[in-house]
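User: Okay, second chain of the day. Same drill as before: sequence in, structure tokens out.
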Amino acid sequence: MTDLPYSPAAERNRQPILEVLRRVLPIQGSALEIASGTGQHVAWFAAALPQWTWQPTDYQADALPGIAARMVQERLTNVRAPVRLDVMARWLPGDERFDLIYCANMLHIAPWTTCAALMQGSARHLAPGGILITYGPYLEDDVPTSPGNLAFDQSLRARDPAWGLRRRAVVEAQAARAGLHLSARYVMPANNLLLVWTATP
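Assistant: Same drill. Structure tokens below.
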């Protein structure tokens, strides 16, 4: 299976992200991945964290066969079949809850309304003590934006005015409305951030 969808960025950042996951996650649990894309992240995490069960999802239905094929190629038994998930609609049947909800590189390539939907859906589907992790580039009021991220933001907005890097403080405000707060911030390679969100006490 050499023709699977492939993201060079996912290949580069999967190990730094995994290192943070190992720091913040318990030994076992259940995880829901939003916007799985090529499936490279979930495959890497599932292989490294075998006591976790993973549910990959994507908005694009045509991404699901590639994700499923990657799980077969990697012989992963702790990954459920990928399903289509639109954060703007009902997420999953029933009231299933997860110890981790993980979403990488979605907020800046989707309309701003998806941020509120992600936070509200996560608040509904997080198990007690569970965490939401978002990963990607952000704008921060107290941190100079790198030239690369400025150029990236401009290129995104040129492609679609609804896209663009999100300001962390505004994302935090959306999270607060859903009952979540930022509990940890990790600086990652290539001017990205990994943010950990938990239920507000």
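DSSP finds six helices and nine strands in the chain.

User: Thanks, on to the next one.
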